[in-house]
Design goal:
The chain is mainly β and 268 residues long. 0% of the residues lie in helices and 46% in strands. The strands form 5 sheets. Strands 4, 8, 11, 12, 17 and 18 form a 6-stranded mixed sheet that branches. Strands 7, 13, 16, 19 and 20 form a 5-stranded mixed sheet that branches. A 4-stranded antiparallel sheet has the order 2-3-9-10, with no helix packed on it.
Length: 268
């Protein structure tokens, strides 16, 4: 008969502890069995004009260790990001000035991830629930010229393109914050249904307030990776291209954000 030192144990951990994870099963503390969880995005919206705030989204992470034994000693959790990070940049390859007034991302986004730990590997599924609205990626209100100005590349200086910050972000105190938004990547449809980029811009003195761009069909984002959506203005039209940012790696580790006081994991 096996002693306790010969038993196999499985462990799970998730972040954040409060607010977005719920236990689906088992539904009582005295019921045995591996758990099933549900992660829920905090945003709510029921129409495309609803304003969505990406700063409400937590950087949700999870780690699972299967079949550990007492002899193996301390547990070493390796956390994985559940969401996909998406940033935007604008590049002007044209012969005229381009002014970006606003960039928004809208549609019906995935609301939930179901996480099943009952097998020998984690299984993620995506319910039909959605939230609808628009995230404001960039808003140039208050900037000189009413937006971010990208002059035509200067051939005399060897320029072939002029570019916005990457990633471009909302305006705070007169400057743009460089931020990524986090979304559920889901399956197949990428982030949800009818996801589009909404642009308000001026090109060669002509204002275009309602340009819509759809994602390329070849773009299939993966959870735990960072991407940059390049809005490339070529000739007289935008071409959207998604590229993996920083080899897909998210910045983390001790003091990565300059704060050495928030890097320890506390289990509750």
């Amino acid at each position: 008969m096996k002693g306790a030192e010969d038993y196999n144990y499985s462990f799970f951990a998730y972040y954040p502890y409060d607010g977005c994870f719920t236990l689906v099963s088992p539904n009582a503390s005295d019921v045995a069995g591996a758990p099933k969880f549900k992660f829920t995005m905090p945003q709510n919206g029921d129409n495309i004009d609803a304003e969505l705030d990406h700063t409400e989204t937590p950087d949700a992470m999870m780690s699972v260790l299967y079949n550990k034994t007492r002899q193996e000693g301390n547990l070493q959790f390796q956390f994985s990001h559940l969401l996909t990070a998406l940033g935007f940049e604008v590049n002007n390859f044209s012969e005229y000035q381009l002014i970006i007034h606003s960039i928004k991302l809208g549609g019906s986004f995935y609301k939930e991830i179901e996480i099943n730990l009952t097998g020998d590997q984690v299984v993620y599924t995506f319910p039909d629930s959605r939230y609808t609205g628009k995230y404001t990626i960039f808003d140039g209100t208050g900037l000189p010229g009413g937006g971010y100005i990208l002059n035509a590349p200067d051939a005399n200086k060897g320029e072939t393109v002029t570019s916005s910050p990457s990633p471009i972000g909302p305006i705070l105190d007169g400057t743009a914050r460089n931020e990524f938004i986090m979304l559920i990547s889901g399956t197949g449809t990428s982030f949800g249904d009818n996801i589009k980029v909404y642009l308000d811009y001026t090109f060669n003195g002509i204002r275009v307030p309602d340009k819509e761009l759809s994602r390329p069909g070849t773009f299939t984002p993966q959870p735990g990776k960072k991407y940059t959506a390049q809005l490339n203005f070529v000739g007289n039209a935008f071409v959207i291209n998604f590229v993996v940012d920083n080899s897909g790696e998210w910045g983390n580790g001790a003091a990565a954000d300059g704060d050495t006081g928030n890097d320890d994991i506390v289990f509750e």
